[in-house]
Amino acid sequence: MNNIYMQFRNDSIRFSILLSLVVVLGCRDESATAKQSHFEHDHGVAAHWPSDLPDAAKQLRSRLDRTSTDDPESDELQEEMADLVSWIPEVAADSSLSENDWIPINEAAKSLSKKLQPSGHQWTQSAREQAYQLCDLIEKSESKPTAHPVTLESKSS
Amino acid sequence: MNDPTQMIVGGLVRVAQGFAAAAPTLLVGLVIAAILRYYLGRDGICRLFGGNTIRSLPQSWLIGMLLPVCSIGVLPILREMRRAGMKPGAMAAFALSAPLFNPLSLLYGLTLSRPLVIILFAIGSLVIVTALGLLWDAIQPRSGAAKESAAFAADPVPANEPIGVQRLAAVATHIGREATGPTLALTLLALSGLAILAAVFPYGALQTSVEQDDPMAPLTMLMVAVPVYATPMLAMSQLGMMFQHANSPGAAFTLLILGTGANLATPYWFSRQYGWKASGTWFLCLLLIVLGISYAVNQPLIPAGVEPAGHTHAFDIYANPLPANQANIWNAGKTAVAESIGIAEAAALIGLGLIAVLGLVLRGLGIDESRWQNSSATLPVETPKTWDMIVPRSVIGTAMLVGLVALSVVACFAYYPPPQECLEEIRMARTECLSAASSGDTKHALFWLPVWEEWSRRLEVATFLRRGQVRPYQRMQGYLIRKKLELLEHELEHDPLEPAEIKAALDGIYATNTRWVNSFRTD
């Protein structure tokens, strides 16, 4: 047992020396100035992030109208369209849609995203048709009455 | 760079926080080790972990998944496995897998945004421990087996093993001496990794190190994760934050396997048992396999539809806890430690304290486990009465281990109470947080905000536990509320405060909260 403790003591000394070296030579802060905020890295928001659900449908439709399947110049727009489709479930959930109205939109967007992934976000004719249908579905859902009115009661509950 | 005072205070804070976090699982580890030693014995331990057959690797992995221990709590168990003559491969498999998942953390993980990822991570851990176990058993020279047998022969199971009260006394003595002896030393070594990280990394230095588009993210995480000590629940919540921020999935995998599965004491202990060469080869292979898998899964597991946040707070806990402009650094350190101790940690710390006192008294009096073995040898052998039979220790030991697993299942239901109770807790945290944020009391709001966030997770796990599913809509609303809470947190941390921004963040939370709460009330 004494041997074990002796070994541990020797290892502890070696470890302490190593630790001191790491601490003394350790990494340097990139900035010597004091931070004004503890969290300087605010969430980045993409330029084409939609302001609400109708805006998502509007942005998607406008890009669909501006692009075609054989247009090599539209790579950036096609990427943005894929982004919009993948964001639609979140944007729809952050609207006044009821759960029953949200489910078909979520499923349609997920299905379309899945279709786009293997092709590296290349929009086939079938994908474009599905995207137009998604826009129609969103616009139809938006015309329904508000499902989750925010009341003073719900604010305090 | 941290100044020397910050390094010292920050390091001490991280060690204290780590010790408090480890206390519950360390206590469990000590109890399990004593049960293995005095109730299961050598044969029982070999049977439990699959003996020296190839089956021992997946079996050790499975047992590890069921036992609620962390990478520190696993150390006393490893010592007992070693005494029982288990092969190093099975021990390494158990050492890595036991801290990764337990019933509480697995349930938590399954309710994260992509449960499939957690299942894949669990399968990935099985592949790793099996490959490494086979490798170790292959490189371990035959002389190692002879050495193990010799080590075991020096500590044989006594012919008249203690039973009844004597055995309980032997168990208490063993736990007390372990808690103030080798296990304590290994625990401090494990926690020193947190002190190193706190000394090296300034406050918030790891916020942008693991972005999904950063090819160095898994490698960076590898460097950080080796000295890290993380409890299974902490690692799981960090994975949740990483998914929410769309950080690198490969880095998340590295953190889970190395940060949770091992700490500085793990390779140290193995090297003391099996030599630096064999242990070094094993650890190097572990690093290479983890890194390889991390890069392989990095792109395929990037979640669709989540806008990368460009940072994460998941690893703030591994950097220095004190900002550079912190006034009264010692008080801030004390507050940081106090805030990290919950009811479970406090209870476990009290339990460990009592055990440590017992251990110190026993050491002072020169009493060890052999005292109870000797006294039992002198017990008269009587014919057992009908209701006073001697139950074989394997039966008691198995019952205790099964009981422990059953207890952890019960603990799952206690830790994740019914959704209605969760909603009530959320209501209280929300009221405190929002009213404080509205009135400009940022400190109070920042205290309640993580409480609210944590209960939002527990609500989902509780729903999953009782109803078998969390609906996609509920999951999405949970994601939204946590995202908006984090935005509020950022606004509250701004110096100077921007009231208009805080109001906008609060308005967003009100609307989301209504939808989120309603979605769980309608179940």
TrEMBL record, chain A:
It comes from the Bacteria. This is Uncharacterized protein.
TrEMBL record, chain B:
It is found in: Cell membrane. InterPro entries: DUF318, UPF0718. It comes from Allorhodopirellula solitaria. Its main location: membrane. This is Putative permease. The keyword Transmembrane helix applies. Belongs to the UPF0718 family. It is a multi-pass membrane protein. The chain crosses the membrane at residues 12-40, 60-78, 90-110, 116-139, 184-204, 216-235, 280-297, 341-362, 395-416. GO terms for cellular component: plasma membrane. PANTHER family: UPF0718 PROTEIN YCGR. Keywords: Cell membrane, Membrane, Transmembrane, Transmembrane helix. It comes from the Bacteria. The lineage of its organism: Bacteria, Pseudomonadati, Planctomycetota, Planctomycetia, Pirellulales.
